[in-house]
Amino acid sequence: MTTTDHLNTPDNSFVHYHQPDPVLQTTVQSWLFAELLPWQKDTWQYFTNHYQNSTKALPHAILIGGNAGTGKRAFVYRFVAWAFCQNNQKHDMQTACGHCESCQWLIANTHPNLYQLPKPLLEAEKSPKKNQILDESPTHQATTTIKIDDIRTMQPFVQQSSHGVRIVVIHQADQMTLGASNALLKTLEEPADNVLMFLLSDTPSQLLPTIRSRLQSFKVSHILPHQSLNFMQNQLPNAHLTDLEQVNHLSSYAPFVAMDMLHSQWYQHRQMWINSWQAVRSGNRTPIQASDYWQKNLSLSDFLYLSQIMLIEVGYIVNQLPSLQSDLNWDKLQPMPKMLGILSLQNVIEQIWQDRRQHIQDKLCYDKLINAMQLC
Ligand SMILES: [Zn+2]
User: Fold this and answer.
1) pLDDT for the residue numbered 17
2) SS3 assignment for the chain
């Protein structure tokens, strides 16, 4: 493996990005009746055509996999709402009506024929602890693990005999423990009548092969660069085109990740990150001063995420590849760091993410990274 291989993972999404999970029910509500995303039209047609004929024309276990921030959950919720809607056969409707009994149940998160793992959070259930978990986005968020008991609790819902279609949605299916995966396997092997199961995953390669082989995979995340850009221009008509183009590249054409970037604190601090690193390595600032600055200005997860994004970019420049962030003054870094130093900093960041899970104090984590940066 050469040093540049390290920078170019196959899907070009160099930093794995997690959306908060479980999501809030208010977010789910916004997805149920949203406009169809342009890159999901073909799959939508397939689903709605096959569902109209008979539920049996759709595979009973469906994998929706693809990069985070591409609208997988929006697609599934939109379909669930449409499939249950009592008016879906009228006037060739392509979106659930929003006012029938079924649509109202979905809005209230009380639909008896929908089972979700994990369940969305109601606004009132946002305890300070759960808030903290949500705050860990955008990366390395402690996603909820799906345990064997979660699958066992779900099984009566799958096995009951009732009229009408029942739908199961398992979010971040790659977070199932081995026990949970094996328990689910039995359900997949003996499909119940009238049950549709959706498994969603940002990294479907992490599912057990035995699970994956029993799922039929559908693509709703294949986005061309111009589709992502056009979509963002419609959503953010006042944003500058050059800014949108840049976050479009940086996000590997995942428009929801890109728009989050544009509005995030860390994105506004990119030039400061370069300046701060140079100040520390040249001795103009002490590591303690730099650490204090970042503790005041960015949450630890944002600071780590920013550092990961920026180090990738420094790696590109050191390897004389074109920079994706042409709005920044990279010449401030003098002399340019060595590739070995960049790789060691990336390792330090990985270590810090792990330290965090052991509840090491945030301050020590900032200090650790900045001390390492001083030496590069
Ligand atoms: Zn309806």
Assistant:
1) 55
2) CCHHHHHCCCCCCCCCECCCCCCEHHHHHHHHCCCCCHHHHHHHHHHHHHHHHCHHHCCCEEEEECCCCCCHHHHHHHHHHHHHCCCCCHHHCCCCCCCCHHHHHHHHCCCCCEEEECCCECHHHCCHHHHHHHHCCCECCCCCCECHHHHHHHHHHHHCCCCCCEEEEECCHHHECHHHHHHHHHHHHCCCCCEEEEEEECCHHHCCHHHHCCCEEEECCCCCHHHHHHHHHHHCCCCCHHHHHHHHHHCCCCHHHHHHHHHCHHHHCHHHHHHHHHHHHCCCCCHHHHHHHHHHHCCHHHHHHHHHHHHHHHHHHHCCCCCCCCCCCHHHCCCCCCHHHHHHHHHHHHHHHHHHHCCCCHHHHHHHHHHHHHCC
